[in-house]
Amino acid sequence: MELIKRSIQCMNEQGIFQWNDDYPNIEVVSRDIRGHELYVLKVDEVIAGIVTLNGEISIDFRSRIPESTGKEFILHRLAIHPGYQGRDLAGKLLDFAYNYAVAKGYQSIILSVLAENYIARNLYTKNGYLETGSAYFGEWNIRMVYYEKVID
What we know:
The chain is 32% helix and 32% strand. By secondary structure, the chain is α+β, with helices and mostly antiparallel strands. The protein has one domain (2-150): Aminopeptidase (3-Layer(aba) Sandwich). Strands 1-2-3-4-6-5 form a six-stranded mixed sheet. A hairpin with a 2-residue loop joins strand 1 (38-43) and strand 2 (46-54).
């Protein structure tokens, strides 16, 4: 949870308010761990990055995303510890996600990101993800942008 807390602090300092004390919380992360869906990237035995990968889409998420190319794999909660940023570790996690999705027979990877999170949006674009749409979540007063990477 230390990595997530530091990531939230760093994002808030950059004016990115996608995560907070309520999300992602210990319950969400514990569920990711129990489901064997949380993957970690270590540097010198320190957890430097995390990502959650699964094939399940909640009904709420499904109702707001554009139609995907095919059987989709979902990328959630990618974070790099602020002390390890700038080393393309996020790119390594995205490469891992792609290779994992290929091995599992998925046809695309989809994700959502806060519209104002231009750092993440640039990362996804740089790594071959295409913007597929957006949705406004009035209950939180945020706009999310959706991306997809088709698996060749």
